[in-house]
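Here we describe the complex-level prediction in full. Unlike the single-chain runs in Section 2.1, the four entities below were treated as one system.
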Amino acid sequence: MAAVQTTSVGSPFGSVNAPRRSVLADEIYEILKSKLMDNVVEPGARLSIDGLSRDLKVSATPIREALARLESDGLVTKKAHHGYTAAPLIDARTFEELFRMRLLLEPACASWAAQVATPRQITGMEDLIAEMKPPLSGDGYESYKAFASQDAAFHVALATATGVGLMVETLERLRPHAQLYRLYYTIGIADDTMREHERVLEAVTRRDEAGAAQAMSAHLTASRARLAGALGQPETD
Amino acid sequence: MAAVQTTSVGSPFGSVNAPRRSVLADEIYEILKSKLMDNVVEPGARLSIDGLSRDLKVSATPIREALARLESDGLVTKKAHHGYTAAPLIDARTFEELFRMRLLLEPACASWAAQVATPRQITGMEDLIAEMKPPLSGDGYESYKAFASQDAAFHVALATATGVGLMVETLERLRPHAQLYRLYYTIGIADDTMREHERVLEAVTRRDEAGAAQAMSAHLTASRARLAGALGQPETD
DNA sequence: GCTCCCAAATTCCTATAGGATCTACGATCA
DNA sequence: TGATCGTAGATCCTATAGGAATTTGGGAGC
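The structure predicted for the assembly as a whole is:
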């Protein structure tokens, strides 16, 4: 490795000529996390250390380190002497557990946000809702993924507006949207999500804690009902 | 490394002559996790990869991997080119957040357990309460740690009795007792904890969901009040 | 006495090498 | 024909080596 450490053309990480501010293991971690969250790496797929090392043109050391972190994140599973596997697709039990936890956490989250959200945060959430673009009938997979990402962004912004870091961490750890977005594609998207977000935000904006909680409950209950139909169906993509 | 891989006398992991069933990195992870949870490694302490490598008589590779996992677990923090540091002691803000999250999660947890706990699970929790031994005045640090461990065990058993794996994971992720037990030592222990556990369990046993939730709320509120006094005080050990 | 600079030591980070383990395939035997 | 065994190749796991980055200590200058 050259003494001037730049991420130059030809390196595994694109062509930005900038001094390296992070270490390779961190960058590998982000790349792999992104691929896992986006399901570029299919749930259940083998992740070969040597294969990734060849693909990304780095040694196994940062790969191992990144995979170790991702294991603790719950995004991959490891079996000794067998290697790593992407965490499996959500099953019916986990789906129910996930919504059960969300129905416990997120109405409270909305209620807390109704107490303390700043006008700036509220405006930010309005922007997020305005930017949501439900996929049109016949749109490709990517637009469903983008919509799920926008959906997630609203929920994260709401959690952030509570000012309770542990709430943000707890919800992020559940990774609802990364787990659910493939189900969106299967059953299509209704416009209801955006309207439901708006109702949550309206209650937050008028500092109506109970209303915010109730609106979030309604959103999640409806979301669960919408997605549940997709659980038993094979992928259509 | 010999073809017959045994953890023989003289290896870093004690003197049990048994075939190796796990890999070194996993074992290092458990050792370090234990030291961090038990505060054998002080909060805020540097964790030198080379130092640990020398101490544990293994190469840096499994150390790095174990530390990477522990980073994602939230037990250590890493700064590029500086290395790893044990996560700091709980501060007042985190303390408040922690109880806020617990007051959201654990009453619901108790309520769910009241719905579905098996008689066997209830008996198990009774045993856990019976085994709790509050430290006597003048007892050493270790008995406080043991009590905190018993305290934690009851909460974990209750979460397990809900049958909701995500609830168990979510509470484990918060690691309340590992974070709080040093505060127990500072302010001493009242007998109230055991009585409060008993009240929770009585409500669970008679399937009183609301009663279980209320008893858990009361327990956590009292626990918070008991421990809050210790937060601003310097360590006395 | 304080500050700055430089060199040496230490530590972090990654690549490489080698051994252990697993998997797949072909050959042999009953 | 099916089961078993052996071998080769692939992959996982750990140790070691070397370079990069940071820290530490000592000396010089103000």
